[in-house]
User: Fold this.
Amino acid sequence: MRPRTIRAIRGTGWTFIWLGLYLMGFVVYQLWFTNLLTARDQSALAAGLDEHFQEVVVEEIEYVPVVVPGATTTTTVVPDVGPQPEPEPKILLQESPSEVGEAFGTIRIPTIELDVAMVEGVRRRDLKKGPGHLTGSPLPGQPGNAVVSGHRTTYGAPFGEIGELVTGDRIEVETALGVHVFEVRAAPERCRDEDGLCIVKPTDLWVTEPREGAWLTLTTCHPKFSARRRLIVFAELVAGPNAEVILGV
Assistant:
């Protein structure tokens, strides 16, 4: 074999060796080092939550039910019995929002042993700290559709196992108002796959739209190690500081 050919083979071999080392380092960074970074951030967020709860401003406001455009309603004819007194307004507790990137509460899902702090915002830097609340959607426990996103792999993978949740599983969200309890509901037919999961495209923004009552919508990437689709879990408020008012029970 000619010396030039030998050098070429050696050069190619070293190229593959360095490429392999680079890929190995990248995998270690993504699956191990990012978890360490998130664990550090989580410790800091959890330590500051008690102080945050003390600083939150809680207001009493009149409850106005969320009305979804296009929803059908039933009209009941009421006999004319003369003037009636105005019903007492229902009072809802509302908390002031956190700054983007700051912790505002915790999410606990006993079924998958999840207990982490959540932050306001869904920017990349926010989700590196933990699950993030979509700014503009109501906070969990308020009327409408509270949307929370989280990583399924890397950065602690807080939503790594939400695909294991089934109808009736409980999700607890603690904010300055108290603990809001939600129950997982079945995936809608429009997005349900053969495994019963709600899988949508990243452009399917209907999952974040307002809903009547009070809902918690969890979103994460699907499948694992890919951002091609989104896995969605819907949960409905069943107990908490505002549940009696919102649910009318």
